[in-house]
Amino acid sequence: MADDNTFDLVIIGGGPGGYVAAIRAAQLGLKTACVEKRGRLGGTCLNVGCIPSKALLESSHLYEEAQHAMAAHGVKVGDVALDLKTMMARKDKVVEDLTGGIEFLFKKNKVAYFQGHGTILDTETVEVKTGPRKKETLTADTILIATGSEVMPLNGVEIDEKQIVSSTGALELAKVPKSMVVIGGGYIGLEMGSVWSRLGTEVTVVEFLDRIMPGMDGEVSKQTQRILKRQGLTFKLGTKVTGAKKGKTGVTLTVEPAAGGKAEEIKAEVVLVSVGRRPNTDGLGLENIGVKPDNRGFLEVDDHFRTSSPNVYAIGDVIRGPMLAHKAEEEGVACAEYLAGQSPHVNYDVIPGVVYTWPEVASVGKSEDALKEDGVKYRVGKFPFTANSRARAVADTDGFVKILADAVTDRVLGVHIVGPDAGTMIHEAVTAMEFGASAEDIARTCHAHPTLNEAVKEAALAVDKRTINM
């Protein structure tokens, strides 16, 4: 075996978990290789997920602002026209620049990059298929699986990425459809539904459960639905899709109440299937090392990310926990540091979740629903953006900040925000919770005026029923 293909660590998957693990491992002195079959680094998140969707969310938001909001600021514009081709090209350029940036970081940190499909032959060997008849064999002391996740299919609704699309296809539509049904009221469905709604599509969200964003706090979910409904989205909750029939001009969906009842039909030009994601572990050669996924496809790992095979580790979407890029990144760093002999820590209780609609929705820690279910006594502090001076100045007053604190110790147990830049604001709460802060600690911390984050301070004051500006 050539010494050039012998490594301390071989990582299969170049997404947020894998590429971050590779860079950190190389920084710590491990000879590291990363195998990625896509041909571009960054995984689903960077190529067909988080980053391109945020680019379109920003562009569509500006388009909507120009149409409906700028005049109130004294900025008069003429007829606003949509150039979808340019919008899509900008999105693609953002992705291209960032993927190229990761390749630069690999070179900078001396990470070997192999483009191709990686298969584990045994606990020390990974075969990389780099072409139709070309393979390379890598030897490794340790193998790390970071292959991420793929779109969850829906029985009776076949994705063709033209009329019935996944999130990938929804990022590549060549024209603005007149109508769209989004199957699934989670993060991805609401974000992509918002993009096309802003651009002129009539969007209907069909959700099996009786609420959107099921992982979020119940009050946050209800408020967000009211806001999105006001923006033009239609919701059919407690509804399941049982079939889809494609025609020349669109798709006819058959739906019925989730609890049972009379079926009906919904027609749309495009259907977006967004019912979740599943671990991407097919074709990895897990059977060669005696590792078997659970009934949902996840790999079981210990506290150090070791699978049942001693030299094989796993992180990110292929193991349990929220399927979030930043969760995978934290695990990638932690795993690399474990392998280098350090003692890292991932605090799963303070991993934030963000929905990038407008207003944004952000959450960290426990929801009221979870605290009630666990029998935890808590106090609530809430403050609306209508009473925040910066929100009024920028004319973004929808939503609120809610802080949940232990009734006895005052320790912050959860923070939930619906409002402008909630995804940025939540990190004050994440930091506070990481250090075990109380609501009083946040309330006693000076916040600059006028800022949106003053709403966090006021919500903390509200826990003790002593808000100043409401």
Overview features:
FAD/NAD(P)-binding domain, 3 domains, seven-stranded mixed sheet, five-stranded parallel sheet, Enolase-like, domain 1, alpha/beta, 470 residues, globular, 22 strands
Description:
The protein has 470 residues and is an alpha/beta fold. Strand 13 and strand 14 form a beta hairpin. The protein has 13 helices and 22 strands. Helix 1 packs parallel to helix 8, helix 3 packs antiparallel against helix 4 and helix 3 packs parallel to helix 6. It has 3 domains: 218 residues, FAD/NAD(P)-binding domain (3-Layer(bba) Sandwich), CATH 3.50.50.60; 112 residues, FAD/NAD(P)-binding domain (3-Layer(bba) Sandwich); 114 residues, FAD/NAD-linked reductase, C-terminal dimerisation domain (Enolase-like, domain 1). The mean pLDDT is 97. The strands form 5 sheets. Strands 1, 2, 3, 4, 5, 6 and 17 form a 7-stranded mixed beta sheet that branches. A 5-stranded parallel beta sheet has the order 8-15-9-10-11. The chain has a 5-stranded antiparallel beta sheet with strand order 18-19-22-21-20, with helices on both faces.
Q: At the first level of CATH, what is the class of the largest domain?
A: Alpha Beta
Which regions contain 5 or more consecutive residues with pLDDT less than 50? none
- What is the 3D form? globular
What is the number of independent domains? 3
Gap between N and C termini, in Å? 71 Å
Brief characterization of the structure:
By secondary structure, the protein is α/β, with parallel strands linked by helices. The protein folds into three domains: 3-151 and 278-346, FAD/NAD(P)-binding domain (3-Layer(bba) Sandwich), CATH 3.50.50.60; 164-275, FAD/NAD(P)-binding domain, CATH 3.50.50; 350-463, 2-Layer Sandwich (Enolase-like, domain 1), CATH 3.30.390.
